[in-house]
Amino acid sequence: MKRIQAIVQNYPEGSQTSAISMALDIVQRQIGWIPISAMHKVAELLSMPRMRVYEWATFYTMCKREYRGKYNVKICKSLPCMLRGSDFIIRAVEDATGCCAGGLSDDKMFGVDLVECQGACVNAPVIAIDDDYYEDLTVCDVYNIIEKLRCGDIPPSGPQGGRYAAEPCCGLTSLQTGPPPPGYCIQEALRQDKKGDGCN
Ligand code: FES
């Protein structure tokens, strides 16, 4: 409550409703999901109609309106990930967690969801577990990640195949030389004019 009140104060008078995304995020981080009673409380705090909060919570897939496990595993199934083997990743996640897509594992540790593009296509296939992205996945990586989470470890996120970020797998294909010096490719006429000024 204190955090939400502090955030609301950052907005100009009359625009406090803009704090809705942060308010719902705080609720979700505290409780694990966003029950309707919390939506009502947020509406009351931000002096906005309840319907506006329902609209927000139902539009954004990151708003969880039911408990989705200690770890919410979101598997991207959009085209680039599909072309890079997301069907195998889906099966591996379901097998490793013991939970079908859309379901919750018996021990309530994992909730598995299929989602649309998560904006990391260049590192496809991708899964997001809560706030962390796991990219360049193989089936083997999936089993390792789920096993570590089950044991209480948080495996390192990011590309799993050795890439630092989204650079080409076969090494750099651009920016392979140092930058050219000042005046590079400048028109000859300009170069001569500037010579007298001591400029290059
Ligand atoms: S298609 Fe999977 S991250 Fe974009």
From TrEMBL:
Cofactor notes: Binds 1 [2Fe-2S] cluster.
Gene Ontology biological-process entries: mitochondrial electron transport, NADH to ubiquinone
Family matches, as Pfam families: 2Fe-2S_thioredx
Cellular component, GO, one term: mitochondrion
An MF annotation (GO) of this entry: metal ion binding
Cofactors demanded by this protein: [2Fe-2S] cluster
Binding-site list for [2Fe-2S] cluster: 76, 81, 117, 121
Keywords: 2Fe-2S, Iron, Iron-sulfur, Metal-binding
UniProt cross-references to NCBIfam families, sorted A to Z: nuoE_fam
PANTHER family in the record: NADH DEHYDROGENASE [UBIQUINONE] FLAVOPROTEIN 2, MITOCHONDRIAL, NADH DEHYDROGENASE UBIQUINONE FLAVOPROTEIN 2, MITOCHONDRIAL
Family designation: Belongs to the complex I 24 kDa subunit family.
Identification of the protein by name: Uncharacterized protein
Organism: Spodoptera littoralis (Egyptian cotton leafworm)
